[in-house]
Design goal:
Elements: H1 2-7, H2 15-23, E1 35-48, E2 51-64, E3 68-72, H3 79-86, E4 94-99, E5 102-103, H4 109-119, E6 120-124, H5 135-145, H6 150-163, H7 179-191, E7 197-201, H8 209-224, E8 228-233, H9 236-239, E9 244-249, E10 252-258, H10 260-264
Parallel strand pairs: 3-8, 3-9, 6-7, 7-8
Antiparallel strand pairs: 1-2, 1-4, 4-5, 9-10
The structure holds adenosine-5'-diphosphate (ADP) and magnesium ion.
Length: 266
């Protein structure tokens, strides 16, 4: 199963090139790392009848493989819209968006679904867990969609739950878990496919400060193990967890800054 996981996307033509970029060794030659995310003059306009909202207004930026970046801005500034585009859940109205070197607008639905399922782990503010299913079944879902067989799904789901410190809660349903534990289940689900990119939209927004720190600690661990992390938040102290913060307001990127700790270590 593992072998086919790593090779079957090569049958999708241009995905072979994409895979090289995703899997490159990011630590050795930081200056030549190609951007994993490259947005150029991205606009997103929502149309509801005659009403138009420009949620993103010409956003351009790059994020390199292995970076930990925060996107910070007030409510309504376009953060979730941006995350939907980064996660291939939606497409720009105009402008271009390249993911791992590939223009997303040229990808087929099948390729997009493949990228979302295998390469990106999503974490949302509202956890988005299925209430009727125990923790391990929630965590195995992405593997089910990826066609992994049942014993392997369970093995990997339990491993992911162990990694987030929930080995003693694998049979609990979401309603039997605290908010912090539910978000850790969601994080186990995000990392069970071993994705290169983690997109987290206000992952600490519904949590007390202790649970929020747990979640940030896990993101930090994932970053140190080589994942690219994009953390979306409206809170400056949460954004401090990242190496670099891009500030967004009214659908535009205002500027960016390195975190104090990251700046100090450079
Ligand atoms: N599906 C939609 N239809 C119409 N307007 C939307 C839709 N989604 C978001 N918006 C609008 O786009 C702007 C940005 O929203 P959003 O990306 O959710 O911001 P944030 O996540 O920063 O709070 C807001 O003005 C919001 O009302
Ligand atoms: Mg939002």
């Amino acid at each position: 199963m593992t072998t086919s996981d790593h090779t079957d996307h090569r049958s999708h033509g241009s995905h072979a090139d994409t895979a090289e970029v995703w899997m490159e060794n990011t630590g050795t030659y930081p200056l030549v790392r190609p951007p994993v995310i490259d947005a150029d003059e991205v606009w997103k306009t929502y149309r509801n009848g005659s009403l138009e909202v420009d949620a993103l207004r010409g956003v351009s930026f790059k994020i390199r493989s292995g970076e930990y970046v925060a996107v910070m801005g007030p409510s309504g500034s376009g953060k979730s819209t941006l995350m939907h585009i980064l996660g291939c859940l939606d497409v720009p109205t105009s402008g271009t968006f390249h993911l791992a070197g590939e223009d997303v607008s040229t990808m087929s639905e099948e390729e997009l679904a493949h990228v979302r399922n295998r390469r990106i782990g999503f974490v949302f503010q509202q956890f988005n867990l299925l209430a009727s299913m125990p923790a391990w079944r929630n965590v195995e879902l992405p593997l089910l969609y990826a066609g992994v067989d049942r014993p392997e799904r369970k093995r990997r789901a339990l491993e992911a739950l162990d990694r987030v410190g929930l080995e003693s809660r694998v049979d609990h349903r979401p309603g039997e878990l605290s908010g912090g534990q539910q978000q850790r289940v969601a994080m186990a689900r995000a990392l069970v496919t071993d994705p290169d990119l983690i997109l987290a939209d206000e992952p600490t927004g519904n949590l007390d400060s202790v649970s929020a720190n747990d979640v940030l600690g896990l993101l930090d661990e994932l970053h140190r193990s080589g994942r690219t992390i994009v953390l979306i938040t409206h809170e400056a102290d949460v954004a401090q967890a990242a190496e670099r913060t891009m500030r967004i307001r009214d659908g535009q990127i205002l500027g960016e800054q390195l975190a104090d700790s990251a700046a100090a270590s450079r």
